[in-house]
Amino acid sequence: MAHKKIAKIITSLLVSALVVSAVPNTTLPFGLGIASAAEAATEIDGHAFVAESTKYRLYMKEEDLSLVVEDKDTGAYMDSAISYDDGKNNASWIGAMKSAIVITMINGNDDTQQADLINDDVKKDITYSDKGFVAKLYWTKYKFGMTLEVILTDDGLVANIPDESIVEDGESYYIGTIALYPYMGNSYLDEKEGYILVPDGNGALIHLNDKEGRFKSGFSGFIYGTDVGFDESDVTTLLKDRYNTISESEQVIAPIFGIAHTDDEIAYLAVVEDGEARASIECIPNGVSVDYNRAYAKFLLRKAYTQPTSNNSTAGSLHIFESERSHSDLRVRYLFLSGEEASYSGMAKAYRNYLLAGGLLKAADTSYNTRIDFLGTERESWVLGTTAVVMTTIDDIYEIYDELAAENVTDIFTVYKGWQKGGLYNLPISYYSVEPKIGGKARLTSLINDAESKGIDFYLYNNALLINPDEKNATFNVVKKINKRKFELKTYMDVYENFLYITPTRTDVLLSRFVKSYTSKNVNNLALAGITNTLFSYNYSGSNYTRFDTQESYLSTANTIKNKTNLVMEQPFAYLWADTNAFLDMPLYTSSYIFEDESVPFLSMVLKGSIPVYAQYVNFEANKQEFFLKMIESGSYPSFYITKESSSELIYTNSSDIYSSEYSSYKETIKKYNEELKALNEKLGTANIENHEILDCGVTKVTYSNGVKVYVNYSSKEQVVDGITIGAMSYEVDG
Prior knowledge:
This protein has ten helices and 48 strands.
């Protein structure tokens, strides 16, 4: 993949430099010929000076390979190991809190044993250079090892474990997980002011205050969502055995986390550059097991799963681990920040610059549009099979567009769902075949072309992940879990109870076929869903495929399609951002975990001004005024899911959860949102978010790169900030 190749080339060059200029088997790397080394302290907290860049100095302790990164200008520093032990912790916790690498081992069916650099006999062969060090490590008792490369850069630090360096020579102990620098930037209780940036939904903060032992767990989120190839079905809370009463948590959309010590004006944003598809982000406040705040990436090399012993569901099963570990470099890049940039706003800017510089994000047309999506047809059960439920025809859309134009709503972005023959869930879509009851192919093609002539962006929706076994032959090319059992996505609906996943290879074939059929009619706008925010391991034809394989396949498919279509994506994971012209369905909230202190629109701050970001549908938000203010705060564009007919018509379909969608009910809201948000974005233009502040009075202040300031008052009282009066639950714009 492009971004990984770039990172690997950079790392390879730097590691080559390390080897060339290395001083093998040197205990303390003084005498490296660094002109300014004399200006550096010889050690900090027992860590010896190793290297320096234009902005930072690196110190290391050989015992545990722990680090100190010092800001050369201010003298502030962060360390990767605890500097104070309160005496409450056992040997295992001490090992975890000091070691550069903490391993969970697999011994038989036990995956609870820990290996680290403090409590175990580890052979170390360390070489140094003016850029960092390389440490070859081998656990003699467990007979496994790896190489850790640490490179100081002008903007921070890179820690990397090359895949080819990982060896497992024994027959009793295997590597389950590897946590890399799990206490980088740690702090004890409330000794530091600041927060942990959590990649939950759009973004959240955990303050570094004393949590007083209130929480039993912290944030643990698998990057790019859970893996259905292993995970068993959740125990779902249902109402009347039909309605799911528990909302799913938000996914980790981007492989990032961060820590800011605002009192010392030093912070870092960590980007998991490689191995992220099989890694989790752990953000843990003090009081959870130990009294330290910490955040880190934990890489999964082997995962347990349940293997049934027969086709009989009542028979027994075995709890086993993957026999072959996953293969990938394990790399985290720490982008350090100082002064006023040592904040989550600084982290957002650093991540944006990182993405743009690496070609992982490409600037698109960010002109303002109101997103108005339409549902064409659904299906409900009939005497034999199903019958169509027509919600919005092509002629209805023409009529709605005309009505909106009369109200000066002309800046429109539309995704048409359920346009295909057989309705919304006749999946997969392999040809440009249009449901006759909405008007047919010729009429839809005319609508798309007419919309384009009026400046309306009109996209057809394609969920390329799912196959409906009630409508399509699902004997072949469907995903099986690693235990060789077919994965089924349960809907808890009456018409179509289960969907299956299509294998990535088959997805590529079907999408290519559809795009060829579609673009042959001179229509090119495609809204892609399903594969944009799902990754999984799977078994096919007796072979196992990892999430890395799925990720590479989906990226290849997206690269091909974007060159043939105008492509937008539904809630795309970060590795696909360079391929989409818009981000659809950005979450504006978090999962609302009890240990999170504040939500921040971090991802919106990263993307604003580079690609258009459309919020999730307004229809389904209980507090629409607060949601509107969230859009103002984050710079997001509004989204409406509209039908001409009443949503009551959907009660016996798989879209029965769409309880409010009738155009007549939303016409005035669409007009109001369009008027206000268009006026705001005309002032913002292509500016980026420069700073985001949450003030004590309940007002959020957002400063843009062109000098415009937006004040959002979430409090129930009028507030005055910077001489500007902001009404309760309202906003003001200065500039």
